[in-house]
Write a structure and sequence with these properties.
The complex is a heterodimer of chains A (about 325) and B (about 325). In chain A, about 75% of the residues lie in helices and about 0% in strands. In chain B, the strands form 2 sheets. An 8-stranded mixed beta sheet of chain B has the order 6-7-8-3-9-10-12-11, with helices on both faces. Chain B has a 4-stranded antiparallel beta sheet with strand order 2-1-4-5, with helices on one face. Classes of the chains: A mainly alpha (about 325), B alpha/beta (about 325). At the A-B interface, helix 9 and helix 10 of A face helix 2 and helix 4 of B.
């Protein structure tokens, strides 16, 4: 098991290098000079002074060829330094970890809630396959997965905040402020988890070992919750992990709608401002977290599915 | 002659499918006596497994079943779900083909054996475990393997696990649906010996479903030949091998290598669109006009029966 984890960690190194290379080249080929854009923002002038622009470039090494810039950046990252934001002047790592807990709390609560709601519903739906209950649940799940989060977020603001006045629109800081963004994230996730749980359960219920369980005289409740459930959970864990990793950097829309000062919003603002160090650093850190989550999901598999046992040779006696 | 234990009368099973109604088995009459072993033989797709599953009402939802399955005086097809569960595993056990797919991959095999004990005998965890270990030893699995998972076992060992599970309750009948099909020859022989041994030691009747004539000869007292959803011949084992009656039975025996390996021409008819007349007539070398028009009825002789116009009086 340990050597498996180490192997996976080592395999992550080229992946991380690939990701950083890609994001670096994307920045390089995207139009707009960071020096000009930033000075325009900072000074508030339309055409910043040419000398100032040149000075900014020289100071941040923007005149060097791309591979030199990349090499310098990578060297610094290995030393634990991701540079400073052009905009705020604070270290990128600080900027990231100031915001990451805010994003992660949103995502984690939303995903866990989604799992707790969706898995039982998916199982109910599959065990009552093609009944009225199943059709109703599927109908709502379809709406849930089809609704884009920006639309759902706006609807929630409209009805719950403006119409019913239950929760203020902009209320960051109070615990009430969590409700709407979490609901928005949760509905989409819950819908897709429910659909997957249902599909996976239906698949498992067709398996021969379920027939064996029934032939043994196991009652239907036990067949579903004991024999089928653990087998059906495996793909659900996968999608849960992907959601979790995805949302770690991908809650931009929800953060923007609800003015949530998280990672995603800061990253988008940085893209507009061509804040190279922030973009590079954030992309790097988000990918790292994504890889760590997918690694822990892989390890979780072996708990749920004994067939997946890393590095243990098949026993034959 | 021992009393009848399980009697199937005029069993019909149809499946509703997108391609129309599939006539999986038609007018099946079978009888198994106490301690007897009966074999149902037929080609793939002739409806053998459907009969087996119908006994325990384990067919999928799209099945339409009619007829009677009388077991110890009760019609199993009329039992409710709860009563049926009391029969399954407890009085009638089942063993399937491809044991690898029939064991739950995420639970240790010992627990899967013990589960049956806990359901029907309401044993405590420890007692069930002890008894499961006994059963494992009985079928030749080392007790140390209690905590191992199905994927760690070979096919033959997996089938032993299934047999241990089937024995958990001294059932009166074990229904074994192609128990050795996916196994190699030596393992096949071992599993068959084991089945024979455990059924004789525990006075269990055996209802064996197979397409392997060698297995029939080894294992059974009598047999029923199934073709395209119908029983075409029933006979005690020796009489069958000595003098098969139905042309299909003759062709079957002719197809084994010992007698020169003459394959039967053509293939099993499509069960969604059955022909008039005898279902075997397109492949039969004795086919006459009546065979094409009229479906033959079962004709009974003292110990055997056959569904063929050439034997009807």
């Amino acid at each position: 098991m340990n050597s498996y984890i180490i192997k996976r960690m080592l395999a992550a190194v080229p992946v991380m290098i690939g990701i950083s290379l890609l994001s670096y080249s994307l920045l390089y080929i995207s139009p707009g000079d960071p020096a000009e854009i930033l000075l325009r923002l900072q000074l508030g002038t339309v055409n910043p002074d040419a000398a100032a622009v040149e000075a900014f470039r020289a100071e941040h090494g923007l005149n060097d060829p791309i591979y030199i810039q990349y090499g310098n950046w990578l060297g610094n990252v290995l030393k634990g330094d991701m540079g400073r934001s052009f905009r705020t002047g604070r270290p990128v790592i600080e900027e990231f970890f100031a915001r990451f807990p805010l994003t992660f709390q949103l995502v984690l609560i939303a995903e866990i809630l989604a799992l707790l709601i969706a898995v039982p519903l998916g199982i109910v739906s599959s065990s009552m396959h093609n009944s009225v209950v199943d059709h109703i649940l599927r109908f709502f799940a379809l709406i849930g997965v089809s609704m884009p989060s920006f639309w759902l977020g706006l609807l929630l603001i409209f009805f719950i905040s403006l119409h019913l006045r239950l929760i203020p629109v902009l209320s960051y800081g109070s615990s009430m402020s969590l409700v709407l963004p979490i609901t928005t994230l949760c509905i989409g996730s819950a819908a897709s988890i429910m659909r997957l749980t249902r599909a996976s359960m239906l698949e498992v219920l067709r398996q021969n070992y379920i027939r064996t369980a029934r032939a043994k005289g196991v009652n239907e409740v036990q067949v579903i919750w004991h024999h089928a459930f653990r087998n059906a959970l495996i793909p659900v864990i996968t999608i849960f992990g992907i959601h979790l990793g995805h949302l770690a950097g991908g809650t931009v829309i929800v953060e923007t709608i609800f003015s949530w000062p998280g990672v995603g919003r800061f990253l988008v603002d940085s893209i507009y401002a061509r804040d190279f160090p922030v973009i590079q650093g954030f992309v790097f850190l988000i990918s790292l977290i994504f890889l760590l989550i997918s690694l822990s999901i892989d390890i979780a598999y072996s708990v749920f599915d004994p067939r997946i046992r890393y590095d243990v040779p098949k026993l034959e006696r | 002659m021992a009393a009848s234990l399980l009697e199937i009368r005029d069993l019909n099973v149809k499946f509703r499918t997108d391609a129309g109604l599939v006539d999986a088995c038609n007018g099946i009459d079978l009888m198994i006596r106490e301690r007897e072993s009966l074999c149902l033989i037929g080609e793939s797709g002739c409806g053998k497994s459907v009969v087996a599953l119908a006994i325990l009402n384990l067919l999928p939802e799209n099945a339409i079943i009619s007829g009677e399955v009388i077991f110890k005086g009760r019609d199993l097809l009329n039992l409710n779900e709860k009563e049926m569960r009391g029969v399954r595993g407890n009085e009638i056990s089942m063993i399937f083909e491809q044991p690898g797919t029939c064991l739950n991959p995420v639970f240790p095999i010992g627990d899967q054996i013990a589960e049956a004990l806990r359901i029907h005998e309401h044993l405590r965890k420890n007692e069930a475990k002890e008894k499961a270990v006994e059963l494992m030893v009985h079928v030749g699995i080392s007790p140390q393997r209690y905590g191992e998972y199905p994927h760690q076992f070979s096919g033959g060992m997996q089938q032993r696990v299934m047999i241990a599970m089937a024995l958990a309750f001294r059932p009166s009948i074990i229904v074994a649906d192609e128990p050795t099909t996916s196994l190699d020859l030596i393992t096949q022989a071992q599993i068959l010996d084991l089945l024979k041994k455990v059924s004789q030691e525990n006075n269990i009747s055996l209802f064996l479903i197979t397409h392997d004539l060698g297995v029939v000869w080894e294992m059974c007292d009598s047999l029923a030949v199934m073709y395209a959803g119908e029983i075409v011949e029933r006979a005690p084992i020796y009489e069958f091998f000595h003098s098969p009656m139905h042309p299909y039975s003759k062709a079957l025996l002719g197809s084994i290598s010992k007698s020169g390996f003459h394959p039967i021409g053509g293939s099993v008819p499509n069960l969604t669109d059955l022909l008039d007349g005898c279902r075997f007539h397109p492949r039969c070398d004795k086919c006459s006009d009546i065979c094409k028009k009229l479906r033959p009825k079962m004709t009974y002789f003292s110990t055997r029966g056959v569904r063929c116009h050439h034997y009807s009086a």
